[in-house]
Amino acid sequence: YYLGKTYQDLKSTDLLVIPTTMAKNVHQLVERYRSLLQPLVTEQAENNCLCLCPDLWNDEYRKANYLDLTANYFYK
Question: pTM score, two decimals?
């Protein structure tokens, strides 16, 4: 199957996403999902139906510390 037949000549830069584009899209997705999840998490916290579980860990090789936060909730 030859893409150029159907879609004319294509450049690899048109098909492959460059790192700056990926980074921009990731930030947009984070903001989108944050705005969708915030009302849900707030409602569950107000109803005492939310549990936050922190997890601290480190990478000795990279000398980096990490904090992971898991949220569990249920509907009344």
Answer: 0.53
> CB count, 10 Å around CB of 40?
13
Token pair of 51, please? 């549990």
Query: What letter does residue 63 receive in the DSSP assignment?
Result: T
**Residues 65, 69, 70, 73, Cα dihedral to 10°:** 170
The CA-atom distances, in angstroms, between 40 and each of 15, 23, 43, 71, 74 are 37, 26, 5, 11, 11
Structure tokens at 57: 């860990």
Give, for all 76 residues of the chain, the pLDDT tens digit. Answer: 555 556 666 666 666 767 777 777 888 889 999 999 999 899 999 999 999 999 999 999 999 999 999 999 887 7
